[in-house]
Amino acid sequence: MIRPALSIVVPCYNEAACLDVLHTRISAAARAVVGDDHEIVLVNDGSRDQSWAVMERLAASDPRLVAINLSRNHGHQLALTAGLDLCAGERILIIDADLQDPPELLGDMIATMEAEGADVVYAVRRKREGETFFKKLTAAGFYRVLDRVTDTPIPLDTGDFRLMSRRALDALLSLPEQARFIRGMVAWVGFRQVPFPYDRDERLAGESKYPLGKMIRFALDAVTGFSTAPLRLASHMGLVLTGLSLLLFAYIAIGWLSGSAVQGWTSTMLVVVFLGAVQMFVLGMIGEYLGRLYVESKRRPLYLVADVAGPVKGRASLGY
Ligand code: UDP
Ligand code: MG
Questions:
Q1: Are 164 and 120 in contact, with CB atoms under 8 Å apart?
Q2: Distance of alpha carbon 111 from alpha carbon 84, whole angstroms
Q3: Would you place residue 87 in the very low, low, confident or very high pLDDT band (cuts 50, 70, 90)?
Q4: Could you tell me the distance, in angstroms and rounded to a whole number, from the CA of residue 273 to the centre of ligand 1?
Q5: Nearest protein Cα to ligand 1, atom 24
Q6: Taking 90 as the threshold, does the pLDDT of residue 35 lie above it?
Q7: Phi, psi of 219 (to 5 degrees)
Q8: End-to-end alpha-carbon separation of the chain, Å?
Q9: Exposed end of the chain (fewer CB within 10 Å): N or C?
Q10: What pLDDT shows up at residue 261?
């Protein structure tokens, strides 16, 4: 297999308005460091807009561009997986389609990779422009909670924007799981990984493709994929509640001994409702793990490709 020096992999969902500028800016950035020896892999994740038509046009105009059309919307992490699986480069840059992550940093990222002898250079967000207060707050909270509960240290404030070596990517692709939290999986893989601080720009066009529902699912995939701490929470809560119930027992015994036992509808209801809620919560948490176990056990392909435009140089190892 002839490997290009660099692959740039971009998952796209309803990004028609960004694709032309994206193509111009990433080709220029790639050309500045490796000349013609690169490929651009655009993955259309079942967009409802004109993204695929634009990609086909771009593929016809640029022999270095490969466009992959997934059979439907598989979600950001699986679209990215498809692109990574089908790219062939010696080095791989992952970037979003909305140009929030400036492709012009590529040169410096490659320089950092070489200077540090690193396998992964991950971009850490110093500032986030043009994102809502809610998004910034939830994101900041998410990375910190994740850091507390996971067993794998996952870098804070780091998205998927990163440069990887072929051996780090091959290691990543050897992880077969369905619920993919790629930034965590890369951290798990190890090798030498170095941070690269940058300021995140505003989205070029359109709006975030991560509504609240998707964000919650993404966060749950992250936590369940990298920690079993929530499963242990049940036994911790059980312990605390046992302590509390001993206190309550003493209180009831005193009431009974002093002959004022019948009152207490309020406290009884409180205890019943509280315990019911705790049990539901814990059951739900077990359900999150069980559901994922079930999905994994079906061993379905991670993604399905409907069409390809341009020369696919990589060989799929995972998906189909
Ligand atoms: N994306 C995707 N499939 C989806 C949702 C998003 O491929 O189902 C892509 C999207 O086109 C973008 C990247 O994932 O290139 C990150 O999404 P977005 O910029 O909307 O997320 P945000 O930056 O708001 O967190
Ligand atoms: Mg974005």
A1: yes
A2: 22
A3: very high
A4: 40
A5: 208
A6: yes
A7: -65, -40
A8: 19
A9: N
A10: 66
